[in-house]
Amino acid sequence: MKNFILKNTKSLLASAIMLSATGCSDLKENPDFINPSTFYQSAKELELGVNAVYDDLTMGNGDWSNHFYNRYVFECLAGYQIGWEKGPLQYNLGNISASDDYINAYWQQCYRSIDRANNLIETADKIQDPANADKVKRIKAEAQFLRGFYYYELVRYFDNPPLKITSTQSYNDLPSNSGGKQKVLEQIYADCSAAASVLPASYSGADAGRATKWAAKTLLMKAQLWGQKWAEAKATSEDIINNSGLSLYADFGSNFDLNHKNQGERIFEGQGSAKANSTEYTNHSAHFNPEDFPSDLGGAGWSWLSATKDFRMSYKSSDKRIDATFIESYPTGRTAKNSKGEFPIVKWSEKADYNLSRFGGLVDPNANPNNPSELIFSKAWSGKLVELNTNWSTTEKNTIYLRYADVLLGHSEACNEVGQGDAFASINKLRERAGLEPLKGLSQAALRDAIVDEIIHEFAFEQVGYPELRRKSKFGGNPDYLGAYIKHYSDTYKVGRTVKAKDYVLPIPLIEIQGNPNVKQNPEWQ
């Protein structure tokens, strides 16, 4: 963090203030020199600050290699999601280092927002705005949730991030990771519990999308799973199931469309809207649009990321999640136009050829545009993240971070591990929606395997697979789900990748190790 402390100390909250023109109207000094102790005098001003803490969940900070895209890249370590751009390609091969650009960017984005949250929490405790005391408490609780959220994001990839819960004041104000993962998890438990006690169950109007009580409890449950606090995770998930009023959408696809933003089982999501703010769009379509989708139809992108044909084939044909998870058909510009002068429609088929190259799995460019049997492809494009007919810079899609399926699968896992309660009930709710047969009569180990399989197929392209696989695995141990995925990928596509201990945790950035004597590198990377 040392490399950006000066920037954050000098102008950490300037971007928060500049989010709103009304916020700037009262300022007399240059925003680069705004002092939080003199600017934040009311709940309204404090709210501008917390908006900036949400900002790293989208592209609001202008980082092209943004928070969620870096997660895209990390996901390629598991092998089922692939990419031809240099970052995803190297992760597919297991070629990463402590000086990796994506790791550096992700680390700085998380700590930038953590430091902002720390500052707001301290400031909220000092603000004198009696008429809006409840709002100040709510904003502080939002900052606590967000601090917990970003620390969770760090734990799930790095295991032992340094913990800091006070704002940065100088170059010498450097945190330590001596307490390891457990110390960070304890802070997440505390932040989420505190936030849940204050935050409302829901919002309306312009506040839709802010952290809720149930978002805080869902994050608490997920952190408890990481800490193997099975009884506590079971109790937290049952609280949400019994008291939140949340339920699954009948249609799985409602989790990812534009008509259900910030509603129902979508518990927490990063807000993206080019209409509202030209810098607040996501760049999902830029990375996941099919390579051969005609730009004449309005879409655009580089098609860096997809999933393997083999992964797409791992879904049962009856699985109702397929239609929303993948792009099953689309117009192609790779062949000639058909007899009607239109771009022909290609459809996914396991009969289509496939390889790992950039153009592998696309329709044959020499296919007869009037013969449906030739208009087939096998690449597994994401249906969750794109708007096919929309340019990437005008997309309106949000980024989903927490949804009710997290709670249900967490509940089944906790029940299974603690040996109490109905471990099948919650996972079977997801399977029922997917049109799959219910699970029953499995041993603890077999149900553990089934839960992992369900996580991967329920959350494909939501960038949770790699951290969940590694959470449940041990290098050379049993079970070793991550190792099995990597080996399957390597064997299937002959990439010559060997499973190694470094695959199971990301390295703490070299720039942090060199600049902060209080931080020690993860053992696997020493």
Please name the defining characteristics of this protein.
single chain; about 525 residues; mainly alpha; Serine Threonine Protein Phosphatase 5, Tetratricopeptide repeat; three-stranded mixed beta sheet; two-stranded antiparallel sheet; 21 helices; 7 strands; globular; signal; TPR-like_helical_dom_sf; Starch-binding associating with outer membrane; SusD-like_N
- Main beta-sheet strand count, sense and barrel state: 3 strands, mixed
SSE arrangement, N to C? HHHHHHEHHHHHHEHEHHEEEEHHHHHH
Give the oligomeric state of the chains in this entry, treating copies of one chain as homo and distinct chains as hetero: single chain
Strand pairing plus helix content: what structural class?
mainly alpha
Report low-confidence residues grouped into runs of 5 or more: 1-33
Rg value: 23 Å
What does this structure look like?
With 526 residues, the chain is mainly alpha-helical. The chain is built from 21 helices and 7 strands. The chain has helices at residues 2-11, 14-17, 21-24, 36-39, 43-55, 67-75, 86-92, 101-124, 133-158, 180-196, 213-226, 230-243, 284-288, 309-313, 322-325, 404-418, 425-433, 444-458, 465-471, 481-493, 510-515, and strands at 81-83, 266-270, 305-307, 329-331, 345-348, 376-377, 399-403. The strands form 3 sheets. Strands 4-5-6 form a 3-stranded mixed β-sheet, with no helix packed on it. It has a two-stranded antiparallel ribbon with strand order 1-3. Helix 5 (43-55) runs parallel beside helix 9 (133-158). The two termini are 19 Å apart. Residues 1-33 have low confidence and may be disordered.
